[in-house]
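R.M. (postdoc): so does anyone remember the format we settled on? I'll just put the structure tokens first.
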């Protein structure tokens, strides 16, 4: 059980306002599903927030998606570094060459103007693999360590 807003972020899907680094990170370790929400009056003393119970089943997806855990999570963190920037701009800020970004976007079939919150976990993995193939996303180069 967590505050409703936290649960919203954990279970969020690509394209939604709540989708972000927390969503991708938790969902890389397994599926999360909202079960029910309780109002403040359900508790004594009542908190100032609603609480949501969600189910999270531990089933890591790193091997399934063909990505290395630590490097991939650093990469995802960098893609969400500046939420209002495009994904390409965040990757450039991480030091990845523009030519590698363009080639990787094409290979992974990602719109060059996409923002991180629009990408599914599968698309993040495809982009990461494409950047690795370009030699532009080694785990130590993708972003600062966690």
């Amino acid at each position: 059980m967590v505050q409703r807003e936290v649960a919203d972020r954990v279970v969020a899907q690509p394209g939604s306002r709540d989708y972000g680094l927390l969503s991708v990170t938790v969902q890389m370790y397994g599926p999360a599903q909202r079960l029910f929400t309780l109002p403040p009056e359900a508790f004594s003393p009542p908190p100032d927030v609603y609480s949501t119970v969600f189910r999270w089943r531990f089933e890591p997806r790193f091997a399934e998606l063909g990505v290395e855990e630590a490097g991939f999570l650093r990469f995802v963190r960098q893609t969400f570094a500046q939420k209002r920037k495009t994904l390409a701009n965040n990757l450039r800020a991480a030091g990845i060459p523009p030519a590698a970004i363009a080639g990787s976007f094409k290979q992974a079939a990602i719109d060059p103007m996409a923002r991180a919150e629009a990408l599914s976990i599968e698309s993040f993995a495809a982009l990461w693999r494409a950047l690795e193939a370009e030699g532009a996303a080694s785990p130590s180069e993708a972003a600062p360590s966690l």
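R.M.: ...and that's the designed sequence above, right after the tokens. Also worth knowing: The beta strands are 2-3, 32-38, 51-56. Residues 121-133 form the longest helix (13 residues).
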